[in-house]
Amino acid sequence: MSTANGFYLKLRTKDNNLEIRNSINADSSFQDLLKSISNAAGIQMSNLKILSGFPRKALVFPSSETLEKCGIKCGDTLFVTEEENFNSLAPTASAPVSLTPTPTTPVLPAPQEPKTHITDNQQRNGVSGILMKKVVPSDNSCLFTSFEFVVSGKLDTSASTYMRQLVATIISSQPEEYNEAILGQPNEKYCKWITNPNSWGGAIELAVLSNHFGFEIAVVNSITGLISRFGEDKHYGQRVFLLFDGIHYDPLYMDFMEIEKIQTIFPTDDTDVYQQAEQLAEEAKSSRQFTDVNQFKIRCTICNSVFVGQLEARKHAETTAHTSFDEVHS
């Protein structure tokens, strides 16, 4: 059985990094946790909203549930925000049953307008936020859709056609820089290949887009827990973040609980957002939120051949010019 001695949790609020130590342990109840956080953060329990995990999710549990059963471990980081009348306590089995009849047609909340997209730190007026993942479709164009999101703040899958054509135009205009040794195939053939909506973008496309738009693109790798920075040597003043799980890209954005805004473009000297990205990478790695590109099965939708790993699929594409693949879920 765990004891309080040595048990601690890290808290991130909009203003501070805090710790609660020795006041709770793995056998403490979820309500005990809320009380400890309320005291540490100076937020009323009724207004506490706690997020954890990857991707970030609000923690809602019965008051008597132990921290161990809630999946909260010593050393975990919890993100603490204040939201009026947010109820973190889920009803228990012994809770009284309401006698009010349930309406046959559920009442849905009014649709919310998309949050405003801001492009620099000054526009958020000193308000701190939490780095989040925006899920984009797995349609072979996830890199281009993700990049469009971090540039514009909008999820627009149709923009991938423009992004592909832009990359092809840039590569074709610089045949000496983008030669067969770099591309793995002749320049003209590669340009035709990348405009195909079934072709996957990767490091070459990231480098091209970084150079064209003048952003550093930081790719958070959930396999290794590391961050690769495209355009790092150019010393750009702004940076955007993408998350890569081995085969799929999603954009990252800063969500602000207090204001109706999101941010996707950050100064390269913003150490806070970079540290959040590093922490998110480590959380994704530890929770195995990635695809093992050496082991997953992939099927060619043209000839129905099945391959194990990205390398086999790539060789098949090079020898047959087949470029349409689906992941096989067994």
TrEMBL record:
Keywords: Cytoplasm, Hydrolase, Metal-binding, Protease, Thiol protease, Ubl conjugation pathway, Zinc, Zinc-finger
Originating species: Parthenolecanium corni
GO molecular function: cysteine-type deubiquitinase activity
Gene3D superfamilies: 3.90.70.80, Phosphatidylinositol 3-kinase Catalytic Subunit, Chain A, domain 1
Subcellular location(s) per record: Cytoplasm
Entry annotated with the keyword Lipid metabolism: no
Functional description taken from the UniProt entry: Hydrolase that can remove conjugated ubiquitin from proteins and may therefore play an important regulatory role at the level of protein turnover by preventing degradation.
A cellular component term, taken from the record's GO annotations: nucleus
Name of protein: Ubiquitin thioesterase OTU
Record-annotated OTU domain positions: 131-255
Catalysed reactions, semicolon-separated: Thiol-dependent hydrolysis of ester, thioester, amide, peptide and isopeptide bonds formed by the C-terminal Gly of ubiquitin (a 76-residue protein attached to proteins as an intracellular targeting signal)
Taxonomic superkingdom: Eukaryota
Principal location listed in the UniProt entry: cytoplasm
GO biological process entries: endoplasmic reticulum unfolded protein response; ERAD pathway; protein deubiquitination
EC number: 3.4.19.12
PANTHER family cross-referenced by the UniProt entry: HIV-INDUCED PROTEIN-7-LIKE PROTEASE (PTHR13312), UBIQUITIN THIOESTERASE OTU1 (PTHR13312:SF0)
A Pfam family annotated for this UniProt entry: OTU1_UBXL
